[in-house]
Amino acid sequence: MKQTDRKRLDAAYKKLRRLKTTFLGYPCDAEFNYEPLYRFLSFPINNVGDPFEQSNYQLQTKSFEREVLRFFSKLFHIKDYWGYITNGGTEGNLYGLYAAREQFPKARVFFSEHTHYSIKKNVHLLGMKYTSVKAQKNGEIDYADFEKKVSKQKQAIVVANIGSTLTGAIDNSSKLHRILKKHGVERYIHADAALYGMVLPFISDILFDFRVPIKSIVVSGHKFMGSPIPCGVVLTRKSVANTLQNYIEYVGAHDTTLSGSRDAFTPLIMWYRIKCIGIRGFRKQVAYSCDLAQYLVKKLRRMGWKDVHSSYITVSFKRPSERVVKKWELAVQGDIAHAICLPHDTKKQLDLFIKELEEECNEAP
Ligand SMILES: Cc1ncc(COP(=O)(O)O)c(C=O)c1O
What we know:
The chain is of the alpha/beta class. It folds into 2 domains: 3-32 and 279-363, Aspartate Aminotransferase, domain 1 (Alpha-Beta Complex); 35-274, Aspartate Aminotransferase, domain 2. 39% of the residues lie in helices and 16% in strands. The protein has 11 helices and 13 strands. It has helices at residues 3-19, 62-75, 89-103, 117-125, 143-150, 173-182, 222-226, 238-241, 266-302, 322-327, 347-363, and strands at 81-86, 108-112, 130-133, 155-161, 186-192, 216-220, 232-237, 247-248, 253-254, 309-311, 314-318, 331-333, 336-340. The strands form 3 sheets. A 7-stranded mixed sheet has the order 1-7-6-5-4-2-3, with helices on both faces. The structure holds pyridoxal-5'-phosphate (PLP). Pyridoxal-5'-phosphate binds next to α3.
């Protein structure tokens, strides 16, 4: 490699190291060390095919993948499950909607206007029709609008937000289910728990998982858990997945996943994180992050910043200047910005952020 190319890598590394210190708006934990796994990068590993089948491709990590799935099956209270490790929340949502469409090919998809953009994209890819439902002020679905729109349907596919992207709002899946049942609507509820799937089980009694009649759920691996490579998990009831398989002789396994070749390194990452931190560790991390969020809320309110709201680790507030948005990598939509408090954040860092907002207030004419 030329000296100039080496320098380019060094410069990119330094830039990323600097940016990590002001990474406040996106829900990805940045505090991890996967060095013991580096040696696995010297193999062309690939988890092609169903995670519960061996396949002809033997350079794989499916036993680790299955352990990760088992961890989430316990977390989400399901015994009879199927699932796989995806490359993130979007793929998991695509799988959930695909499974739903196979069950109810003509059904419309209902979701609130605060739903992540991956749902609309996936609905479009699958050639499905959808109805957008109003959201309440906190971002939670408006149940009256939902009932009005869904009550005349024979069948419906519903996406419940378990931690909406902007405000961390939680749709009540039991309530959605009750409304559908009341009107005799056949149903498939998919839970998008990309971020809060790794938050709620450790801090609340909210029933959002398979204890209510959802059919599939998605959680991201690179968000709260932390991973340098995007990843996630989709879990479904086994009865749902059983209808979606196709045996492929060439790979020696059923073709049950959306991607053919699949990442075999992220299962190691997720497995390693689970082993290193464990349930007690995750509980501590969630409590720490929620405390930080409350600290930020207090500071913002004390300085009179407008529109401050919080949900667990998500703090939304009036959008600051573009300079602050850019520097702190805040996620924004319209007049609202949000910060997500995660295990890598500290009070010291939040104090610096607040100081910059204060300076901005003082500079304003
Ligand atoms: C609620 C929700 N669902 C799905 C996604 C998509 O996840 P990914 O970016 O991993 O595809 C996100 C990402 O921020 C999200 O917030």
